[in-house]
Structures are given as C-alpha cells and as structure tokens.
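Moderator note: this is an archived Q&A kept for reference. The question asked for a predicted structure of one protein chain; the sequence and the answer are reproduced below.
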Amino acid sequence: MPSTDIRDAHANDTHRLADWAVAMAWETEQKKLDPDTVRRGIRAVFDEPGRGRYFVAERNGQAAGTLMITYEWSDWRNGDWWWIQSVYVAPEHRRQGVYAALYAHVKKLAQARPDVCGLRLYVEHHNANAQRTYESLGMADAGYRMYEAALRRG
C-alpha cells in the first residue's frame, strides 16, 4: 500500500479544495454549495491564516484528501480547541488510511503546542461510517448537540 504524505495546502490548491468541499457537502448533507463562494471562503483562510489552516494528503504524489483546522478559544482551559473541518477523501482513496494520516498529523502538531487543549469535530447524526472512523482513532462523543442561527445564505 502506498504511503500517505501530509503537507500544508497552498493557495494554488484552492480549486481542488473547493471542488472537494462542494462534493463533501453534497455527499454528506445533500447541500448544493456555490463553488465561487466556497473558493472565496478558502482563499480567505490563505489570506488570513488566523482563520485556519488546510492540509492535503498525497499518495504517490496524487492529492488524495484534505482537512482544515479552525481555532476556538476556551476560557475554561486557557487554550485553543482545534476544530477539524472540511474533511474530504477522494473516492478512489477511501478506506486506505488517508483520513487517519491527516488526523495523526494534526494531532501531533497539536500535542507539540502547549496552547492547544484538544481536537474537536462535528459529524452528522446519520453518518455512522465517519463516527466509527473517529472512534477508532480515539475520539469520543462529547455529548453536545449543535444549534445554529444562520445569518446569511451559504
């Protein structure tokens, strides 16, 4: 099995990341995203790194998957939670350890920083495959439900 290498994403990855984000939204939630809006959103992260950071997994030099981390301050812990978001593995690379490699990379980076208190992500209630994957990597259901009040379309 080919090894999986993880690298920081760059602005020239924007179109691929946007395509993957659009595909992920459709696959997991049947939400049709506007590709131009998504591209602008991704570029905003590259323009302002305080918003987050993207990683790309590669297998044999071919882009295979991605995830983004964003940051949430916790006054309870005096540290940042790193939220894992925008997870996508290209269909031909699924069930081959791509997400596990991305997660291990991010976890190692987080563990090396005293200002990071943990990793979090959210997952749809019906996405049992993803839940099993996260649990197999040592993550646990945090017991929260998520609510939102959307303020604009998107």
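Archived answer notes: The first strand starts at residue 4 and ends at 8.
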